[in-house]
Amino acid sequence: MDVALRLGDIVDQLGGSLHGDFNVMIRGLAPLETAQPQQLSFISSAKFKSQLLSTNAGAVVLSEDLFQQYPPKCAAIVVAKPYVYFARLTQLWKQKTVAPIVPGIHPSAVVHAAAQVHPSASVGPLCVVEQGAQIGPNTVLHSRVTVGARCVLGERCIVHSGAVIGADGFGFAPTGAKWEKIEQLGAVKIGNDVEIGANTCIDRGALQDTVIEDGVKLDNLIQVGHNSRIGQHTAMAGCVGVAGSADIGAHCTIGGGAVVLGHLKLVDGVHISAASVVTRSLLKPGHYSGVFPIDDNAAWEKNAVTLKQLHQLRDRIRKLEQHLSENSD
Domains of the chain by range and CATH? Predict the structure, then answer.
């Protein structure tokens, strides 16, 4: 759908201070380096100043500081938080260009007679909603989502294609000769405004429920083990693995490919770098990195620099030992 909005109308709807022609027509959003005269872009860091000064965009969103230091040759919308403003721009553009999702259950979906789907929710093609599950108001299940028995999703959740909510947790007791299955008797309870990426799996609890609190954002291909809890507004990037009974606080971030071992606690405000392995509970807010083992990020960076110098340090120690040996003779 071809959409054109006047720059001034965008500012009227979203706010900001406009510097430039109110009547500039905007037909799309684009990065600084590829934007054309009828497109709107944004910059949130001075490290992209060269792109700002050379962009062909018709308008750019930026902070007051950047506007004063590097005034662009195009129109500008000056705001306090350019990245947040850009997020709202994308929402506005989607409203104008994409047909709204229609509430209801797709004919190919399978919904158990004892499940509850709110009339304002949308259940997409080939979804499965099992016995006793509850889907809250304005929640959207995209194609091929499975919601297991007795699992609950709150209001305004978005679950992307292929996600599985409420499969059995990984529970087996060794008997010596084989494994005895531990039946998973809990469910998954998901709060409001949660977004779950494609092919992400959240296991049901063994006895108690696995809990995903309000505002949590999970990327694609994430595994959340049974009985885990993820606190409000925590975000996880793709391929994160959370083992069973982990307790993760609110407003945490976990980078792509990181692993949190089972039965550990992360307090509110913990931030884990990508590909890190959390092997101990983290009881102090902060930024943590590493695999040998995980540590405060500043300490880990110092150790990483030292690690790269180990070969040189070894040679120096050998020479020193040799020198001391020769002198002792």
Answer: 5-97 (3.40.1390.10), 120-297 (2.160.10.10)
- With 0-12 / 13-18 / 19 or more C-beta atoms within 10 angstroms meaning exposed / middle / buried, residue 189 is buried
Residue 226 annotated to the active site: yes
Neighbours of 114 (CB within 10 A): 11
Residue-level pLDDT at 295: 85
Model-level pTM? 0.90
pLDDT in tens, 246-300: 999 999 999 999 999 999 999 999 999 999 999 999 999 999 998 877 889 999 8
pLDDT tens for 65-104 read 999 999 999 999 999 999 999 999 999 999 999 999 999 9
What pLDDT is recorded for position 217? 99
pLDDT at 2: 80
Is 70 exceeded by the pLDDT of residue 1? Answer: no
Given the residues 118, 226, 287, 311, the one annotated as active site = 226
Q: What is the 3-state secondary structure (H, E, C) of the chain?
A: CCCCEEHHHHHHHHCCEEECCCCCEECEECCCCCCCCCEEEECCCHHHHHHHHHCCCCEEEECHHHHHHCCCCCEEEECCCHHHHHHHHHHHHHHHHCCCCCCEECCCCEECCCCEECCCCEECCCCEECCCCEECCCCEECCCCEECCCCEECCCCEECCCCEEEECCCCEEECCCCEEECCCCCCEEECCCCEECCCCEEECCCCCCEEECCCCEECCCCEECCCCEECCCCEECCCCEECCCCEECCCCEECCCCEECCCCEECCCEEECCCCEECCCECCCEEEECCCCCEEHHHHHHHHHHHHCHHHHHHHHHHHHHHHHHHHC
Query: Is 301 a residue whose pLDDT tops 90?
Result: no
- Of 63, 54, 62, 17, residue with least CA distance to 32: 54
Question: Minimal CA–CA distance to 27: which of 73, 93, 77?
Answer: 93
What is the β-pairing status of strands 17-19 and 75-78?
Answer: antiparallel
